[in-house]
Design a protein that fits this description.
The chain has 2 helices and 5 strands, in the order ββαβαββ. It has 122 residues and is of the alpha+beta class. A hairpin with a 2-residue loop joins β4 and β5.
């Protein structure tokens, strides 16, 4: 039987949105404490796991190093760092080392998030 697991991570970063209208509050530099939920899916293996949570943490470490306490606009590929850009950017990096990852959800605040999914909506 297929199952889905999730692990949550946090990071802090500054950004601004260069393509919004002048006067929009997000045009100015500001910061967030982001929450990232990573979802993996599959059949449990001989260990009884889809993927070890430690593998997800290991895949997160280099992503965290690139974005934590940074200005996201300075990161290649994140020059316009909306959550709609950030979520697929992260998902692509997770896939490289953990193919069981099927979605990444990025929370910019407690009430706003964006999800990028490998197979459509989760």
């Amino acid at each position: 039987m297929r199952v889905r697991i999730s692990k949550t991570f946090d990071f802090d970063a500054a950004h601004f949105l260069p393509h919004v209208a002048d006067g929009h509050k997000c045009k100015r530099m500001h910061g967030h404490t982001y929450r990232v939920e990573v979802l993996a899916e599959g059949e449990p293996d001989e260990r009884g796991m889809v993927v070890d949570y430690a593998e997800l943490a290991a895949a997160w470490a280099p992503i965290h190093d690139i974005i934590d306490h940074r200005t996201l606009n300075e990161v290649p590929g994140l020059e316009n760092p909306t959550t709609e850009i950030l979520a697929p950017w992260m998902l692509e990096r997770f896939w490289r080392s953990v193919p069981q990852v099927v979605a990444v959800r990025v929370y910019e605040s407690s009430s706003t998030w964006c999800e990028a999914s490998k197979h459509g909506w989760v």
